[in-house]
Amino acid sequence: MFWRENKIFAIRNGALVTAARKRQESKTMDGTQATEIRSLLLQAADAIDRANAIVSTLDCKDQALLATALDEISSALHFELLQKLYLRYPGLAEDASVWDGAMA
After folding, report:
1. What is the pLDDT of residues 60-76, one digit of tens each?
2. Where would I find the H helices in 56-91?
3. In angstroms, what CA-CA distances link 90 with 27, 94, 96?
4. Rounded CA gap, 42 and 64, in Å?
């Protein structure tokens, strides 16, 4: 596999197959999938918070080794991934029990 001009190419038995062919098989995210993705991302955020709590008890050298990377991952998760999901499905940002799964 190799990248070229924002496309992924795979060479199989000497033939070149592009990612465009794969895209035809994919589908648009629906509300159920968005809810599942949100749930998994929030679980990941909780795990990162637990890791940060442990890291905060370590000595300065070990904290310096891990804290920055964990903070960067947490920021990307909250301010990039979840934000994009909430922009696409605003109801997800609200209480999940009120959200009806409709896209705004």
Report:
1. 999 999 999 999 999 99
2. 60-76, 83-88
3. 20, 7, 11
4. 25
- Whether 34 contacts 42, CB under 8 Å: no
Say how far apart CA 102 and CA 89 lie, in whole Å: 8
Sign of CA dihedral 41, 46, 50, 52: positive
Q: What is the DSSP letter of 90?
A: G
**Which H or E element spans position 102?**
none
pLDDT, tens digit (0-9, with 9 covering 90-100), for 89-104: 988 887 444 434 443 3
Predicted TM-score (pTM) of the model is 0.62
State how far the Cα of 56 lies from the Cα of 62, in Å rounded to an integer. Answer: 9
